[in-house]
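Quick one, C-alpha cells below. Sequence please?
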C-alpha cells in the first residue's frame, strides 16, 4: 500500500485503493551528459501544476473527476546507478502488481530503463513509443552503458527488433542512426507517421516515454540538452493525447525538465500541461 504524497500534482490526491493510475517521481540526473538539473524536475512540476487549471478545454475533462494518486518521489540512492534503477523497477513493479498503471515523472531519461524492466516482466510483448530529440541508441557513452544517451539501446535488449518506435529524432551520432535502421523504427524530425504506427500497434501493450526535449527549445528551454528544430507545443499536445487515447498504455513517463535553465518557469508549465493532457487522455 502506497500513501499519498503531501504535495501532489494538482488534483492527483485519490486514495491508493481507488486510483487506476499512480504517479511517482524519480529525481535523478547522475548520468546527464551535458547540463545537470533534471533531479529537480518532479518537485518543480508538482509545485507549478497549481499555476494551471485541472480542467482541460481541449478534452472537456477535469482531473478532479479521474482516479489518479501521486505517491511522491522515490528517495533515490544518488551515486549508485544500478541501485537507483532497481529502486525504480521495484516501485513500478509494486504499482503493476496492484493492478494500476504507473506514470513516472523524471529525472533524466535513464530512469525509463528501471520502469521498463518491471513493465517488460509483466508484459513480455510490450512495444515502446518514444518521443525525443535524441535517438538514445548508443552502445555506450564514454565507455558507460548506463547513460541517458543509451537508454533506448538498453530497452532494446529486452524488446528485440521492431518493437521500438521513435518520433521527433533529430540528433545522434552516425553509428546510432546506422544501427537504428536495422533494429528500430525512427521517424526523424517530426510526428508524421504516428497515426499509422498506432494503427499497427492496436491492442498491443505499449510503454510510452516522452522526453520533453522533443519540443523546440524556443518553447521548452528548460532542459539539459536543448536541440533546435523541434515540434511545437500544439503538435506535442495533440500527439500525446492521440497516443494515450488510442494505444493500450500499460505504463508511461515524462522526463528531462531541468527547471533552473528557464527562470521564467514556462518550461515547467509546459511540462504540467503535457502531463495533464496525458492523464486525461488515459481516462485514468
Amino acid at each position: 500500500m502506497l500513501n499519498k504524497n503531501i504535495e501532489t500534482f494538482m488534483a492527483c490526491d485519490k486514495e491508493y485503493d481507488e486510483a487506476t493510475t499512480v504517479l511517482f517521481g524519480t529525481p535523478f540526473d547522475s548520468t546527464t551528459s551535458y547540463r545537470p538539473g533534471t533531479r529537480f524536475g518532479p518537485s518543480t512540476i508538482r509545485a507549478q501544476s497549481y499555476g494551471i487549471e485541472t480542467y482541460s478545454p481541449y478534452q472537456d475533462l477535469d482531473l478532479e473527476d479521474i482516479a489518479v494518486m501521486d505517491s511522491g518521489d522515490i528517495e533515490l540512492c544518488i551515486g549508485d546507478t544500478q541501485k537507483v534503477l532497481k529502486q525504480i523497477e521495484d516501485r513500478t513493479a509494486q504499482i503493476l502488481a496492484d493492478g494500476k498503471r504507473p506514470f513516472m515523472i523524471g529525472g533524466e531519461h535513464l530512469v525509463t530503463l528501471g520502469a521498463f524492466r518491471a513493465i517488460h516482466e509483466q508484459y513480455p510483448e510490450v512495444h515502446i513509443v518514444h518521443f525525443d530529440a535524441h535517438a538514445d541508441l548508443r552502445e555506450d557513452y564514454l565507455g558507460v552503458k548506463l547513460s541517458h544517451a543509451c537508454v533506448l539501446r538498453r530497452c532494446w535488449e529486452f524488446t528485440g527488433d521492431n518493437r521500438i518506435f521513435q518520433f521527433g529524432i533529430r540528433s545522434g551520432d552516425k553509428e546510432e542512426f546506422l544501427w537504428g535502421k536495422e533494429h528500430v523504427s525512427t521517424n526523424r524530425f517530426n510526428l508524421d507517421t504516428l497515426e499509422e504506427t498506432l494503427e499497427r500497434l492496436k491492442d498491443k501493450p505499449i510503454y510510452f516515454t516522452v522526453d520533453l526535449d522533443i519540443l523546440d527549445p524556443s518553447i521548452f528551454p528548460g532542459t539539459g540538452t536543448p536541440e533546435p528544430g523541434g515540434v511545437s507545443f500544439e503538435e506535442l499536445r495533440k500527439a500525446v493525447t492521440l497516443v494515450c487515447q488510442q494505444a493500450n498504455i500499460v505504463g508511461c513517463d515524462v522526463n528531462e525538465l531541468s527547471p533552473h535553465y528557464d527562470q521564467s518557469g514556462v518550461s515547467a508549465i509546459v511540462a504540467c500541461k503535457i502531463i495533464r493532457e496525458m492523464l486525461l487522455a488515459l481516462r485514468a
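Helices lie at 41-48, 81-97, 111-122, 151-159, 174-183, 194-200, 233-246, 266-281. Strands lie at 21-26, 55-56, 61-62, 68-73, 101-106, 127-131, 164-169, 185-188, 205-211, 248-255.
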